[in-house]
Amino acid sequence: MSLNLIDPRLKLRHLRCFLETARVGGVAKAAAALNMSQPAATKTIQELEAILGVALFDRSRRALVLTSMGELFRLHAANGMAALYQGIQVAGQGAASGMVRVGALPTVSTAILPKALAALTTDGVAVPTRVITGPNAYLIDLLRAGELDFVVGRMADPHDITGLSFEHLYSEQVRAVVRAGHPLTRLSAPVLSTMADYPWLMPPPDAVIRPTVERFLRAHDVPVAETVLETVSDSFARNYLRATDAIWFISEGVVAPDCRDGLLAMLPFAMQETLGPVGLTTRVDVMLNPAAVSILTAIRHTARNLTGSVDAQGQAANEPVGGAARLA
To answer: What integer pLDDT is reported at residue 86 of this predicted model?
Structure first.
């Protein structure tokens, strides 16, 4: 494509400001993230809309929402920025060009990913790796923008991964987890409704498992607890559970080691309805470098070994409290 077809007024700052505003849903937050003043960010968005000749945001609401044309432009702008970033990396051949940037949801950041990276080290493969954690929507946006090579964790909503590819590795449930010695662990057959008598630790609204947890609770008529805390911090949740009688709704892969060690316990509720796929999300239009491929291979191998060892032990998803639940 000839560069003459691109309006010379269009600058990288227009795209960066647009993509960040679309990601956070507001000019003020985008300006802060980009170290710009709010008036400057507003002017940049207005300039971009004037260049394109279309409205990119619906301003009739409190939060900025992309118009249909804005959604379409966002997809192409993110792809273009990612391709440009990759080209700079390849051309530069700098010290950081071999860095693999992995987005990891809590599901895998405590088990699969550490084992996979440790296996590479044991095999003598040195791969500079940067692991970024956060809510699923945040990681997917970074992936689209080319700031991550791939994301490993629970599958996002199909609407959110348009233009991306998901490779299924295994499936796991969300579990209700408590401290060892919790009152509910001393009951032979606790009922689901009793969970409302204790504080809850819930994933935040933008977490990929939040809708799954809410659907499960509604389907079983479980009243909402009087105290509900939202957190993405595993360390906070673990410490809070040990100090209280709270119940933590979390993917089993995050807490399986704690339960095996007797620090936490999974309540013996049948939660097969929360079963969901865990895997790798990549961009369909970007070819990963050999370093990233080596990590992907290690993750696949680790996932096969982990799920295979669990199957061999014959553990079921509704095993007694405190055990590690079946992954697939």
So the answer is: 62
